[in-house]
Specification:
Helix content is 28%, strand content 26%. It is an alpha+beta fold. It folds into 2 domains: 112 residues, no CATH class; 128 residues, no CATH class. The strands form 8 sheets. Strands 7, 8, 11, 15 and 18 form a 5-stranded antiparallel beta sheet that branches. The longest helix has 36 residues.
C-alpha cells in the first residue's frame, strides 16, 4: 500500500461527504424547524496506539498521522429565528423541547409547528405527512367538528376554542438529545434517546421557527470543503505521476 495515496484518498472521501452534508443544509434552509447537520471527523490512530500495545511496531512510524475517519453526523439543536405568520394554528417553541406527533403507530418529535385540523377533527401537521399532534398526555388532540373555530394556543400549550378549554399541546424533551435521529419530513426518531419528559420551553402562537441554517456560513464551509477535496485529488495525481516516473524512467535498464 502506498501510504500517501491512502491518506489522500481518505481526504477526498471525507471532504466529499462534508460537501453532501452542507448541500443538504442549504437545500433545507426554508424548511420550518429544520436543524442543520454537522459533519465530524476523527484522527485515525496507528494500530499499536489503537490497541494500546507496546513494542509491536516501529516507533518512528507511530508518530505519523493515520489520516482521518468519518464520525457520525451531529445535529445542531440551537434555536432558529421565529417568523410571524398570522395563522392561529402556527406555533413555535422558544427554548428546549419538541412537539410530540404520531403517524400511524409510530410516535416522533418535531420542531415544525405548522398545524391544521383534519376532517376527523384531529390537530395534525400541515406539511402533508398527516402526523397527529399529541397532547401532554401523549394522546392525539381532537376537536368537536362544530367547535374548532376560533382556536387559540397559549404560552404553555393550552388550547381553547370558543372560550372553552380543549386540550394542552405536549412540549416534550429527551434525556440525551445526541441520540436523536432524523426520519425526514421534519420528524425525529427518539427511540434511543430515553423516555420523554416535560420540556422547559414555552410556545409562541402565530409564529414558526425557521431553520437554524445561515446560508452565508454554509457557502463558506462548502467552498472550504471543495478546496480541500481538490487539494487531496491533486496529491493523488502528483503521487501517481511520481510513481509512473519511478517505474518507467528510474527503473529502466539502460
Amino acid at each position: 500500500m502506498i501510504y500517501g495515496l491512502y491518506l489522500s484518498a481518505n481526504g477526498v472521501m471525507a471532504n466529499s461527504f462534508r460537501q453532501d452534508v452542507i448541500a443538504n443544509n442549504l437545500a433545507n434552509v426554508e424548511n420550518v424547524g429544520f436543524k442543520r447537520d454537522i459533519a465530524t471527523f476523527q484522527q485515525r490512530l496507528t494500530e499499536a496506539k489503537l490497541r494500546r500495545e507496546q513494542d509491536i511496531s516501529d516507533p518512528t512510524l507511530d508518530d505519523l498521522s493515520g489520516g482521518m475517519l468519518l464520525s457520525p453526523v451531529n445535529v445542531d439543536i440551537t434555536q432558529g429565528e421565529l417568523e410571524p405568520t398570522g395563522n392561529n394554528l402556527d406555533v413555535a417553541i422558544q427554548g428546549n423541547g419538541y412537539f410530540a406527533v404520531q403517524q400511524g403507530n409510530k410516535k416522533s418529535l418535531t420542531r415544525d409547528g405548522r398545524f391544521m385540523v383534519d376532517r376527523a377533527g384531529f390537530l395534525c401537521m400541515a406539511n402533508g405527512n398527516g402526523a397527529r399532534v399529541l397532547g401532554s398526555n401523549l394522546k392525539p388532540i381532537q376537536f368537536d367538528p362544530e367547535s374548532h373555530v376560533g382556536i387559540t394556543i397559549g404560552q404553555f400549550g393550552d388550547i381553547t376554542a370558543a372560550g372553552q378549554a380543549i386540550a394542552k399541546i405536549g412540549v416534550m424533551d429527551v434525556q440525551d438529545s445526541t441520540k436523536l435521529i432524523k426520519r425526514g419530513g421534519s420528524l425525529i426518531n427518539y427511540d434511543n434517546a430515553g423516555p420523554l419528559k416535560a420540556a422547559t420551553g414555552t410556545l409562541r402562537s402565530e409564529f414558526v421557527e425557521r431553520a437554524n441554517v445561515d446560508p452565508a456560513t454554509e457557502m463558506s464551509q462548502l467552498m472550504d470543503a471543495q478546496r480541500q477535496l481538490e487539494a487531496n485529488a491533486n496529491m493523488i495525481k502528483y503521487q501517481d505521476q511520481t510513481l509512473g516516473r519511478l517505474v518507467n524512467d528510474v527503473g529502466k535498464i539502460t
